[in-house]
Amino acid sequence: MADHMIYLQTQPLMPIGNSTVNQHTNVHESNIKSSEKNQFALLLAKETDKLTFSQHAIERLRSRDLQLSDQDLTKINDAVKRAAQKGAKESLVYCNDIALVVSVQNKTVITAMDGNSARNTIFTNIDSAVII
Question: Is the Cα torsion angle 69, 71, 75, 80 positive or negative in sign?
Answer without folding.
Answer: positive
